[in-house]
Write the structure tokens for this entry.
Amino acid sequence: EVQLVESGGGLVQPGGSLRLSCAASGFAFEYYAMSWVRQAPGKGLEWVSSIDSYISNTSYADSVKGRFTISTDNAKNTVYLQMNSLKFEDTAMYYCARNTGPIMAHEYDYWGQGTQVTVSS
């Protein structure tokens, strides 16, 4: 059974940092691209970042480029999202998702339950 379990969310002040984690199980993690997708209150899903560690490829939304860093630890079957210089508009539920193909296709078949990030002063 494929499982994705996010953690690391919380309340942070503007300019602060958080690191999200997504622990994966039930599939050959190293062969799949993984993504982070967020949903702000009252808004639709927004793609944040993707990584295909098998081919050393990463991609970021313009809104987070230069502030967020995605990475994986294949020994731990975990994907991370390091978020720096957080802004009010980064407030959202953050979901980890497994890609079904190339990262720029933005197609996913499994999702985690989400972890809440709130940026507030």
